[in-house]
Design a protein that fits this description.
- The protein is mostly helical and 243 residues long.
- Helices cover 47% and strands 5% of the residues.
- The chain has a 3-stranded antiparallel beta sheet with strand order 1-3-2, with helices on one face.
- α1 packs across α7, α7 packs across α11 and α8 crosses α11.
- The longest helix is centred in the middle third of the chain and has 16 residues.
- It starts with 10 loop residues before the first helix and ends with a strand.
Length: 243
Amino acid sequence: MKKALKTGIAIAAAAALFAGYAAVNLQFQPEACPVAEVYEAAVLKQGSRGGEVKEVQRRLKMWGYYSGAVDGIYGSKTVEAVKYFQRKNGLTADGVAGKATFAALGMNDSVKALEKEQNYTGGSNYTSSDVYLLAKCIYAEARGESYTGQVAVGAVVLNRVDSPQFPNTIAGVIYQKNAFTAVNDGQINLEPDRTAINAATDAMNGWDPTYGCLYYYNPAVATSSWIFGRETVTVIGKHVFAI
């Protein structure tokens, strides 16, 4: 699979993404994750969940706008805190964390994610099942990480697909024996959230925060001495990314 193939997912593929879930009996619930909402990459609103929500909450709490738990759940308290922050910073106080709010919060990676979403140009050989499986892997392996950290995990999978050292399909890479902890412990079967699907889409459209890495690990829990010998390229959240 060539790098040139990762140039974007067409709008038609977005519709196929959700139709495909039902067709292949993946038990994905389209009504719980509408196409229009999925392709608002990293826009957060009431009901959103994940690591990016935690980062919004953490920053708001640090600056005195939010007093609730940093739990990654965009509930009513988070909405009110975002509105408070928006009012204080001259933004539209709608309680939705979009590009302008991310920029004011200093969350530059989230701003980049939205800018990439607005510039998708279409054209990809990835299927709806590929998107879904990659999102499942991202959610299982990195749902507590920042949005960039989740895209990075997806990028590693795709870098392996492109490498002659690994299987040449997303399913082959993910299900390669002992390749991912989430496959071994069954977490790969968890339902991905919107953030994971967005992150999978960003990775497929060429965003690689790892700069071509083939490996990642959490040094706090990794037990393989071999992985510690790989050359570190970058660290994102709890994960070290290496070649």
